[in-house]
Amino acid sequence: DTDHALSSKQRRAIKKINEAKRKARSELPLERWTRYGLAEGTEQFCRINEKNDTVQRIDADTVSQKSFVERFEKPGIPVIIRNATKGWPAHEHWTKDSLLDKYGEELFKIGEDDDGYPVKVKLKHYMRYLSTAPADDSPLYIFDSSFGDHAVKKGLRADYVVPKYFEDDLFRYAPDKRRPPYRWFVMGPARSGTGIHIDPLGTSAWNALIAGRKRWCLFHPSTPKDAVKVPRGYDSEGATWFAKKYPLTQDPSWPYRPLEFIQEAGDTVFVPCGWHHVVLNISDTVAITQNFARFVVWLHGWSSPRPHVIQRVLMYSVTNFHIVWPRTVRGRPKLSQRWMMRLK
């Protein structure tokens, strides 16, 4: 009876996953999800060109917010931050067993259908999919932006805090109903990930990895968009990019040198606005990521020779708001109008 019950659950999970696959990628028959055979060469995705790993690593315990803005955010330089997730409950609560126990019956987004509607699966079905070590070239990937507003999934929000460097986000003044998606709970197996892209509306982003390992490849904003696209005839998945495009970027004659690195559990990656980036999970991963707009104001206070007098000096530094604002006006005009009213 137990074996029959388990097989019944497995069959149901397979059915739900296959339905999600058909909706999320209607152009791809189920039998062609393994057409490139990328699962057989998974090890190739774990190796990077060490010469291109020039990204700096900093410690959140020793680098101040002001120093971060001046050294990385204003000049637009990617960086890996260590210890930014120290003390987060997520490190204990976001294990597979804990997530399954608390959120197994909840729906999580794994894509969109041809009409732009979200495609969702229950976490318990997705976990069964993960347990099979799927051979798909680019497996399904949870990328859920609605968790913070969900009656049950909002519990995830209590498991982390926005790192100190990114607390000031002007999008928090945008009307909730019009604010574009800005934070995502992400989870997936090896070879899942995101294709080459630039974050929308000129926003910057941070990505904190709780479990697993991710491979990143970034290109400076001056790199032409067409130069980093996957060759014609292939899909735009992250795994496909690394298999078919990445080798071309390593040719000595290639004019646009990438920045690449491996993100380890506990690392938080800062991606400045305008950088092309592609991210690939090279093991089962769980992470949280968020986009933001910044206009940083620094307030310093100190005691004067007379204790009852407090002198304050205000200094401001524009980071990416001057890019986010015009793009929001063009792309989301109604949002921009209400946003500006709140900012005033």
What's the main sheet like? 7 strands, mixed
Q: In order across it, which strands form the biggest sheet?
A: 1-2-11-8-13-6-5
- Output the radius of gyration: 22 Å
The percent range for strand residues is 25-35%
Commentary on this structure:
There is one protein chain. The protein has 344 residues and is α+β, with helices and mostly antiparallel strands. The chain is built from 8 helices and 15 strands. It has helices at residues 2-24, 65-73, 90-93, 96-103, 123-131, 238-249, 321-331, 333-343; strands at residues 56-59, 79-82, 107-112, 118-122, 142-144, 183-188, 193-197, 204-211, 213-219, 259-264, 268-271, 276-281, 285-292, 295-303, 310-318. The strands form 4 sheets. Strands 1-2-11-8-13-6-5 form a 7-stranded mixed beta sheet, with no helix packed on it. A 4-stranded antiparallel beta sheet has the order 7-12-9-10, with helices on one face. The protein has a two-stranded antiparallel ribbon with strand order 3-4. It starts with a helix and ends with a helix. Mean pLDDT is 86; it is low at 296-318.
Keywords, please?
344 residues, 7-stranded mixed β-sheet, 15 strands, 4-stranded antiparallel β-sheet, single chain, 25% helix
Summarize the structure.
With 344 residues, this protein is an alpha+beta fold. It has helices at 2-24, 65-73, 90-93, 96-103, 123-131, 238-249, 321-331, 333-343, and strands spanning 56-59, 79-82, 107-112, 118-122, 142-144, 183-188, 193-197, 204-211, 213-219, 259-264, 268-271, 276-281, 285-292, 295-303, 310-318.
